[in-house]
Amino acid sequence: MAGGPLVAAAAQSTTTTTGTGPITIVNTVPAGAPAGSTTFAAAFAPTAVFPVPNIFYAIIDASGNIEAGYGTLTSATVLTRDFVIFAGVANNVAPFVPAFVPTPTGSFTNLAAGTANVYSNPSLLSQVSTQQQRYPNFTGNAQSGIDGGITEDIMQGSFQGTITNGGAGTAGTVNYKVSSNGEVQISFPAALTNNSAGTTSVLTGVPSYLSNVTTQTVPAIVVSNGVNALGAVVVTAGATPTSTGSFTLQQGTPLTGTFTTAVANGFPTSSFVYSLH
Question: Are residues 97 and 163 located together in one domain of the fold?
């Protein structure tokens, strides 16, 4: 995910896709849409260059279920659902700007049969992320359903990564926090090391919304044979906008060397910072 979402002035479409996966949307403005509405393709890919990642969307299905998140427009008629930031029930107080009853679930809505409306506009984004200008330091609790702490679920959390140093991978929890200027802080609650034979340690499974970056090398403290040492981490994006990326540990001076012996290499109880761009 880049430093901020892409949002249209007023994009609207419909879908009959069911389930939790990518949706097929129509490439025409639905009847009854507000004046000035446009299609997702016209709003986000006017020159028909795909894919376009990090698009804010909101879906309201035929049963009144609602989901908001970030997706990738892979063609004029296909929108993937990459990262959910809200899932709940719509309270339709206005035809095109529903109010939200915030009950985040952390998973994609299982869209019901029938025609669902798909939107991207600033009004919906503002209702989903009313605290966005204050993240990540606001006190919202996304589970409370009261204070709109939904954005905190996006801007900080954890994922399961796998570190490999030439042998079988070792899984562990990795924590992240994203600042308002698009900097990502990665930290580890406990040392995450791999003792297999190899000269370079790689942590895979970095979610796409944290690894949609230009490859960059950042200073870090790394573990070599149980001893903390100055080193670096190379942050690499996935092959596609929705695939996972990786962190590659390097040790040495300058910060471009690699491990030269097959010892226990890994991440200590420390952190490093890189930029989403």
Answer: no
On whether both 84 and 166 belong to a single domain, the answer is no
Is residue 183 within 8 Å of residue 276, measured between CB atoms?
yes
Q: What is the pLDDT of residue 96?
A: 33
**Rounded to an integer, what distance in angstroms lies between the CA atom of residue 132 and that of residue 67?**
18
Identify the H or E element spanning 154.
helix 151-155
With vertex at residue 211, the alpha carbon angle to CA 233 and CA 188, rounded to the nearest 5 degrees, is 55
3-state secondary structure of 210: helix
**24 and 123 together in one domain:** yes
> Across the chain, how many H-helices and E-strands are there?
4, 17
User: pTM above 0.85?
Assistant: no
pLDDT tens by residue, 189-232 = 788 888 888 888 899 988 877 776 788 999 888 888 878 888 88
Domain extent for 40: 11-128
Which residue type is seen at 61?
Answer: D
**How many domains in the chain?**
2
Indicate if the pLDDT at residue 93 is higher than 50. no
Q: What 3-state DSSP class applies to 123?
A: helix
My answer on whether 24 and 89 are in the same domain is: yes
Can you spell out the DSSP letters for 5-56? -B--SSEEEEE---BSS-EEB-SSPPTTPPTT-B-HHHHH-TT----EEEEE
Strands 156-164 and 170-178: antiparallel
CATH number at residue 170: 2.60.90
DSSP 8-state class, residue 76: T
